[in-house]
Specification:
- With 560 residues, the chain is α+β, with helices and mostly antiparallel strands.
- The protein folds into 2 domains: 269 residues, Jelly Rolls (Sandwich); 194 residues, Jelly Rolls, CATH 2.60.120.
- The chain contains 10 helices and 34 strands.
- α6 packs antiparallel against α7.
- The longest helix has 30 residues.
- It is elongated and about 85 Å long.
């Protein structure tokens, strides 16, 4: 009996060892992919975030069956010209491996490679592929981190073009991507268009549109036959053309400009772009479904690579997956930290994602608890991508922020970014507020005056009057000393008032109304697109905060 038990124990240990070995092999395969390791070593990639992102990118492309379709992948990771130049598919230090050669004025950082729009271009040496780069089976793309439309001349992010008379009579043909060629100077000008083109003449086989308004994100030009070209943005088909391809020849695809072939052995870079490139690739043609899968892989790669840890925590808590939202959120966090404001803000509500669930979370502490100051909405609210709109009748939100336990008497500020230009129906609608029987912390305003208390006695009421102005934008209440408070709208100081501090009120601060000893009153009907509670700010810091919040709103397409 004892001997049998020993045999069973030995067998059990052997099985455990076998399972352990299998697990170790699995993780070694997953996290030590030879292609990923080769790129990491040759490109000199350091840092756990960068390395993990590359492993993810390679293993997911292989897992989804896409890896073999690519000729060149430029992850733009590592923050310098050398690391940005390497091709993930063939990371040899050679033009034969399609290693980029940067020319002209480029700026390289952790976001990507930024061309100056004047003389910057990069050679992919894709002409080395010869006829592998076939007209009816081609895909290429550029991930733009720049939502800019300020170019005076036509610009291309990628491509090559044969000038008229070089090979095909009096016609030129273009294989390229123009996210936005430039401002239109007349109704018929082609400057005001976005296009994807493969072996296309001026009017044939170019997928063109004037409907793109956001010039950031992942843009893809794709074809799988000789009579189609499709332009995608962030995995979505934007426009397609079904005209036959023209005669096709191969030249080097440039990044940051177009390679204009002017003769048998001559070419120049032209139509320079100034949009930051965070990712680029060249591959054989992809199906629409493969484009969608590829876009999602790159979006996740970007998130793993670029997102600040606090932005990542917030994104995880809210389950926000929209890539443009993630980029906007990350910029908000990075800008707040870079300006020194992050540590001065206690509670931040970005109102991003379009639902009550995404709007409720505190960016500074994204836990789903009262202690983390996540919002609870009551009454009639409308939630959308532009923000949270209270009905002005019974709608309010509890922040669970108690000034008596979470603020310093003479070191307090708070504010909201309003999306509604409407005068209040009462003396003042309160955007934020709480008071107990003795002291109050409240921000309410109309188009001509702001009513406020900043950890001060409930009487007398402190009012700052100003010339009539819209009720939109960022409104801030700021205690600047023991005896004074100051009001702001955007970058304008509306006024300074005498207001001697008392003590922080003991109660939970509400949004879209004021908490009167546990009961909401003076409801607001203005849409809230951002709200914060923090320490006292200098005038310069208020201006900086406005600029950051305004940029955040612009990134989301809802700035006023």
């Amino acid at each position: 009996m004892i001997f049998a038990k020993k045999i069973l124990i030995v067998i059990g240990l052997l099985i455990c060892n076998m399972l352990s070995a299998q697990n170790q092999f699995f993780y070694a395969t997953l996290y030590q992919d030879k292609d990923a390791l080769s790129f990491i070593n040759n490109a000199g990639i350091t840092g756990g975030k960068n390395i993990n992102a590359i492993f993810y990118l390679v293993t997911e492309l292989k897992r989804k069956g896409l890896w073999s379709k690519f000729y060149a992948i430029y992850p733009m990771v590592g923050g310098n010209a050398n690391s940005h130049s390497y091709n993930l598919k063939d990371p040899r230090n050679s033009s034969l491996a399609l290693k980029l050669q940067f020319n002209g004025g480029w700026t390289h950082n952790d976001v990507g490679a930024n061309p100056n729009g004047i003389d910057a271009w990069a050679n992919t040496f894709s002409g080395n592929l010869f006829m592998t780069l076939y007209t009816g089976n081609l895909s290429f793309g550029y991930y733009s981190q720049s939502n800019v439309n300020n170019l005076n001349n036509k610009s291309f992010e990628m491509g090559f073009e044969f000038a008229p008379g070089v090979q095909f009579g009096d016609s030129s043909f273009t294989t390229g991507l123009a996210i936005k060629q430039g401002p239109s100077i007349s109704p018929i000008s082609d400057r005001n268009i976005s296009e994807g083109s493969i072996a296309g003449t001026v009017n044939d086989n170019r997928a063109r549109t004037t409907l793109i308004n956001d010039f950031s994100g992942f843009f893809i030009v794709n074809c799988r036959s000789t009579n189609e070209v499709k332009l995608f943005q962030n995995g979505q088909l934007i426009i397609a053309s079904n005209n036959p391809h023209q005669s096709f020849s191969v030249a080097n695809i440039y990044i940051g400009a177009i390679n204009r072939v002017t003769g048998p052995n001559s070419s120049i870079a032209s139509n320079f772009s100034n949009r930051t490139c965070s990712f680029a690739y060249i591959s054989s043609g992809l199906s629409d479904e493969e484009v969608w899968v590829f876009n999602n892989i790159v979006a996740t790669y970007m998130s793993k690579l670029r997102l600040d840890v606090d932005a990542m925590n917030f994104a995880a808590a809210t389950n926000i997956q929209n890539n443009s939202h993630l980029i906007a959120l990350n910029r908000l966090v990075v800008d707040l930290k870079g300006s020194g404001l992050w540590n001065k803000l206690t509670v931040v509500y970005p109102m991003i994602g379009g639902t009550s669930e995404t709007h409720r979370f505190n960016l500074k502490d994204a836990r789903n608890t009262n202690q983390a100051n996540r919002l609870d909405f009551f009454g009639g609210w409308s939630h959308s991508t532009t923000g949270a709109l209270p009905n002005g009748v019974n709608a309010y939100a509890n922040t669970y922020f108690n000034p008596a336990t979470s603020s310093n008497t003479n070191n307090i500020s708070l504010g909201v970014y309003s999306g509604t230009n409407i005068a209040p129906t009462t003396t003042a609608d309160y955007e934020m507020g709480v008071y107990d029987a003795t002291n109050a912390l409240m921000l309410g305003y109309s188009n001509t005056s702001m009513f406020m208390r900043a950890n001060s006695p409930i009487t007398p009421i402190t009012t700052i009057s100003y010339a009539s102005r819209p009720t939109t934008g960022l409104w801030v209440l700021n205690r600047i000393s023991q005896t004074q408070v100051r009001a702001y709208n955007n970058t304008t100081i509306l006024g300074t008032a005498n207001n001697t501090s008392g003590a922080p009120p003991n109660g939970q601060l509400y949004i879209a109304s004021r908490n009167n000893n546990g009961s909401p009153q003076f409801y607001s009907n203005r849409e809230i697109r951002f709200a914060f509670i923090g320490q006292t700010l200098t005038d310069a810091e208020v201006t900086t905060l406005y600029n950051i919040v305004h940029q955040f709103q612009s990134d989301l397409g809802r700035a006023l």
